[in-house]
Amino acid sequence: MAGHSKWANIKRQKARVDAVKGKVFTKISREIIVAARSGVPDPEGNFQLRTAIDKAKAAGIPNDNIERAIAKGAGKLGADHAALEAIRYEGYGPGGVAILIEALTDNRNRTAADLRVAFSKNGGNLGETGCVGWMFEQKGVVEVSLTPVETGRKRRSETVAIQEDELLEAFLEGGADTYELVETEDGTSAEAMTEVANLETLSQTLKDKHYNVSRVELRWIPGNTLEVSDPDQARSLLKLMDALEDLDDVQSVTANFEMTDELLSLSVA
Fold first, then answer.
1. pLDDT 10s digits, 66-107
2. Which of 10, 26, 31, 266 maximizes the CB count within 10 A of its CB?
3. By the 8 A CB rule, do 228 and 259 touch?
């Protein structure tokens, strides 16, 4: 197993989405509604729902909001979200950058129209289904925060002395394919990737070993990347990514570009 490259735009997207709390609440609540509707409305028997709830708690969404979203998904609070469906859209950004968008919508025409406007105003274009999807592969991702956690029957807080070989052993036991250590504002984290079907097994294996699992998600990974070095192209591309992420129906945006931290920090105002 070897560490994998991590794309800067993914880091930027994660930081930016976490900062826009109101939109995060709406997007995660929709995930909970759809997960509760697509399986049993009980997190114990529905991994998708359990993952969405964990994400909601990590984002600070109140328990009442979580319970209300589950009830909506179960059809106990009316059918106002019954028409929500998951749709994947594809397109191109400035310079031919491939962009993959996941949305939850109750109106396909509205969502497609909003996306088309966002693309056209920012140097890109919305494409046909399949135009760039073949460039991406969906993987399961588990993030482990290497910080003090509550462990064992004694329920006491202790600092876990993480050695990379121990971490590697845990990842291998859980069926991870690759991993990477990442420095964040909150300390060191490790991200492991696995096949989609193995995501629950990997997550549970790490929890059983008392690792602090801070994120479990599905993520689209580009098979190849384009290096963006021109400041004007970088500015247009970042502006397009922001415009897409700001749309209410959009859950996630993934692109296959790489750029330096200097270009990544360009203002798009």
1. 888 888 888 776 555 557 788 999 999 999 999 999 998 889
2. 31
3. yes
What Å distances lie between residue 244 and 10, 73, 112, 249, CA to CA? 14, 26, 11, 9
Return the percentage of the chain with pLDDT > 70, whole number. Answer: 81
Domains of the chain (ranges; CATH) run 8-73 (1.10.10.200), 85-135+223-264 (3.30.70.980), 136-221 (3.30.70.980)
Q: What is the pTM of this model?
A: 0.77
d(Cα 94, Cα 175) in Å, to the nearest integer? Answer: 37
> Residue 28 and residue 2: Cα distance in Å, rounded?
32
Handedness of CA 197, 58, 191, 88 (dihedral sign): positive
Q: Longest Cα pair distance anywhere in the chain, in angstroms? A: 58
